[in-house]
Design brief:
The protein is an alpha/beta fold. Helix content is 37%, strand content 20%. α3 (83-98) runs parallel beside α4 (122-135) and α8 packs parallel to α9. It is globular and about 60 Å long. The protein starts with 8 loop residues before the first helix and ends in a 19-residue tail after the last helix.
Length: 460
C-alpha cells in the first residue's frame, strides 16, 4: 500500500510551480502540423493488424450557459438544434474512422466529454450511441468502462435512466463549489438538490461509480467556505473526488475576463483550501491516488494502484492504458500506438473538413524512443510513486543513471529535501512529496519551455 500523503508547507512553497498535468507525454503543447489525417489512418491500420483493444473519447462541446472559470473547448448557445449539424458530421467521422478498425477490437472504455453531453436530447443521444455501436464493438455486458460528464442542471431522472439504458455505468459530476456567492461569481448556479437528484438516480439505477469534480481558488472562495463544500461532498459518498486548482488566465480564456481578479483568494488562502481538502478527505477514508484525485479504498483505481496496475492516459488515471485511444469530435485527441493526433480546435473548420469527406486531424506527434523512455518514467512516478531503474534498462536497453545524468543532481537535491528517496536502483516519492509528484516528473520532461508559467496552469 502507498504511504499516506503528508502535508509539508515548506516543501510546497519551495517546489510548487506551474507545470503540465501529464495526462499525455509529450504534452499537446509539443504537437506539430507534420502529422495529419494520412498518418492517423496509417496508425489505425496498425492498430487493426495488432488487434489492440480500444478506448473512445467523444467531445460534445455545447453548453447553454458559460461558466466563467471554464477552460474547455465549448460552444455556448441556447438553441439545441445547433447541435444537429455537428452530430451529422460527427457520425461522418465515426464512419471514416470506424472503417479502418476491426470488430475484433473491443471497446473497453468510452467517455462522453464536453461541454455538456446532455445538452443533446434523448433522440440525439440514442442516435449517437446507435451509430457508435454500428461501427465499433462496444462491450454490452456492463463490463465496459463507459462514463459521461454530467452537469446536474442539465440532467434529470429520465435522462439518467436513458444513459443507463445506453450502457453508461460511470458519471463525473461537475460541481465547482456549492457556496451561492462563489457560484454567482463564476456564473454557475447549481443547487445541492440538483446534485443530490442526479446521485440518487445514479445509485438507484446502479451506476458503478460516481465522481464529483471540485475546484478551489475560485473568486470569493475562502478556506472555511470550501471546507463546507468538501464536508457536503463527503456526506454524498461519491467513489471518487477530484479537487483541482483554478488557474486565472484571462489572456487565454475570454470568459475568465468576467471574473473580478480582486475577488480571487490569495496564494496562502488557496493553499489552505488544498490542505483542508486533503485532511478532510483522508480522514473520511479517501485515498489520494495522485494529481488531484481521491478515491475510496474499494474503488477500481485504488485497487489498481494497490496492485501496481494503475495507468495514466488522456482520460487521467485509468485501468485501460493498454488500449488505443480514438478521439472523436472537435479538438479530440487520439493516441494510437506511439502516434498522437488531434482534431481541429475550431468547430467551424472541424465541420468544414468532414463536410468535404476529410478527417479533421490538424496536428500531432510521433513519439521517438526518448519520448517513450520519459513517458514510462513519468507514468511510473505518477501511478506508483516509485520507479525501478532496472525496468527502464530492461525495456529500453539504456542505463538509467547514464541516460539521465544531467537530471541526477536535481534528483539528489530533492532527496536531500525529503521529496523522494533515491538509491542505486530505484527512486520513490515520499509522503511529503506526493502532492508535488508533477514537480518530480518535470525533471524528466525535455520539452518544457524556459518559462513554464507562460504556458501551463498553476498546479496548486
Amino acid at each position: 500500500m502507498l504511504d499516506a500523503i503528508r502535508w509539508d508547507a515548506d516543501l510546497i512553497h519551495r517546489y510548487d510551480q506551474d507545470g503540465p498535468r501529464y495526462t499525455l507525454y509529450p504534452t499537446p503543447y509539443q504537437f506539430n502540423s507534420n502529422v495529419g489525417s494520412f498518418d492517423l489512418l496509417h496508425a489505425l491500420r496498425g492498430s487493426r493488424q495488432a488487434a489492440r483493444p480500444l478506448s473512445l473519447y467523444v467531445h460534445l462541446p455545447f453548453c447553454t450557459d458559460v461558466c466563467y472559470h471554464c477552460q474547455r473547448n465549448k460552444v455556448i448557445c441556447k438553441d439545441r438544434g445547433r447541435a444537429l449539424p455537428y452530430l451529422a458530421l460527427l457520425e461522418k467521422e465515426i464512419e471514416l474512422i470506424g472503417c479502418h478498425l476491426s470488430q475484433n477490437q473491443v471497446v473497453e472504455q468510452l467517455h462522453f466529454g464536453g461541454g455538456t453531453p446532455t445538452f443533446l436530447g434523448h433522440t440525439e443521444l440514442r442516435g449517437l450511441m446507435s451509430h457508435l455501436r454500428k461501427r465499433f464493438n462496444l462491450q454490452n455486458d456492463d463490463q465496459g468502462d463507459f462514463s459521461i460528464d454530467i452537469d446536474p442542471r442539465e440532467a434529470d431522472w429520465p435522462t439518467m435512466g436513458l444513459l443507463r439504458e445506453l450502457g453508461f455505468n460511470r458519471i463525473s459530476i461537475g460541481m465547482p463549489d456549492l457556496d451561492p456567492d462563489v457560484q454567482h461569481a463564476i456564473n454557475r448556479r447549481q443547487t445541492l438538490q440538483q446534485t443530490q437528484t442526479v446521485i440518487e438516480a445514479a445509485r438507484t439505477l446502479q451506476f458503478r461509480s460516481i465522481q464529483i469534480d471540485l475546484t478551489y481558488g475560485l473568486p470569493r472562495q475562502t478556506p472555511e467556505r470550501f471546507a463546507n463544500t468538501i464536508a457536503t461532498v463527503i456526506a454524498l459518498q461519491p467513489e471518487r473526488v477530484s479537487v483541482s486548482g483554478y488557474t486565472h488566465q484571462p489572456e487565454r480564456y475570454m470568459a475568465q475576463r468576467k471574473i473580478n481578479a480582486a475577488e480571487l483568494p490569495t496564494r496562502a488562502g488557496k493553499l489552505a483550501m488544498l490542505q483542508h481538502s486533503v485532511e478532510q478527505l483522508t480522514r473520511a477514508g479517501y485515498r489520494y491516488i495522485g494529481m488531484d484525485l481521491f478515491a475510496l479504498p474499494d474503488d477500481e483505481l485504488a485497487i489498481a494502484q494497490e496492485d501496481g496496475a494503475l495507468q495514466r492516459s488522456f482520460h487521467g488515471y485509468t485501468t485501460h492504458g493498454h488500449c488505443d485511444l480514438v478521439g472523436l469530435g472537435v479538438s479530440a485527441i487520439s493516441q494510437i500506438g506511439d502516434m498522437y493526433c488531434q482534431n481541429n480546435n475550431d468547430i467551424t473548420l472541424y465541420q468544414q473538413s468532414l463536410g468535404q469527406g476529410q478527417l479533421a486531424t490538424i496536428r500531432g506527434l510521433r513519439c521517438n524512443q526518448d519520448d517513450q523512455i520519459r513517458r514510462y518514467t513519468i507514468q511510473a512516478l505518477l501511478c506508483d510513486s516509485e520507479l525501478r531503474f532496472d525496468e527502464i534498462e530492461s525495456i529500453f536497453g539504456v542505463s538509467f543513471k547514464t541516460y539521465f545524468q544531467q537530471t541526477w543532481p536535481a534528483l539528489e537535491q530533492m532527496a536531500a529535501d525529503g521529496l523522494i528517496q533515491l538509491n542505486a536502483d530505484a527512486m520513490t516519492i515520499l509522503p511529503a512529496g506526493r502532492l508535488l509528484a508533477y514537480a518530480v516528473c518535470m525533471q524528466f520532461d525535455h520539452c518544457l519551455p524556459p518559462r513554464p508559467a507562460s504556458r501551463f496552469p498553476q498546479a496548486m
